[in-house]
Amino acid sequence: MSQFPSEDPIPGDARSCAAIEQVIVPRAHDLGGFSVRRALPSIGRKMVGPFIFFDQMGPAEFHLGEGLDVRPHPHIGLSTVTYLFDGEIMHRDSLGTELAIRPGAVNLMTAGRGIVHSERTGLEARASGPKLYGIQAWLALPQTHEEVAPEFKHHAAPELPRIVEGGKRISLIMGSAYGQTSPVKFPWDALYAEAVLSPGAVLPLDPDYDERAIYIVSGKVDIAGDEFGAGQLLIFKPGDRISILGVGQTRLMIVGGEPMDSKRYIWWNFVSSSKERIEQAKAEWKAGRFDTVPGDETEFIPLPEG
Prior knowledge:
This protein has 306 residues and is mainly beta. 5% of the residues lie in helices and 48% in strands. Strand 2 (28-30) and strand 3 form a beta hairpin.
């Protein structure tokens, strides 16, 4: 996904719950046909582990013949992770990749020194009234990997570890938790998972990573007697085991990891530990020096002004 101009999320305050450091309430932004809620970056909180960008897309239903049309755009210094609950996105990139992402699967695109991609609804899906509902996250690459060659990896849903017990269903997207390890590789300690809780189910969250948060996609949770509803990012203090109680049917995303190795700058679709590297990427995109996307060469998103 390409970043768009929007208002910052509402930072919020820590609640009475001693385990919570901050509550962030993303603002909804209408992209014409569907809405996006951006939890990261936020005022006062730019990252959780390597997670530097976190968007909820939809839920949305398009009219027949319509759909998502994110034109080719560039990235550097990050990996994108696309995870859907409903719908389908056709991914194309400058490596020649052309692949549909569907619910439960994972698209991991590593930009490194530079990649271009587009995200659209395929023709077949447009003919049946397409839907879109999911999460797109960006993870900053460690300094040792910021300039690696770009790469794309797809993991089908059956490849991800699933933990089903006690009224909860967990899909482990990245990292290690609950006695399982995801096959999705990333060069920095990170945790990413989807959890679906039945009413009364308890989800434990161990202090295995210094920075941890949950994003409530739908439903409601109770933490130490405080209730939190959908569309909130709860950032936890390090060091304590957290118990998350599902209030009604609830879907949430677990994000976390170790603190990044240095400060990161983000401008449009570029992430880097160096402001100068971002300026270089801006000049290269404006001059047309990035590679094109085979099969999607006629359109592109121009460099924003300012």
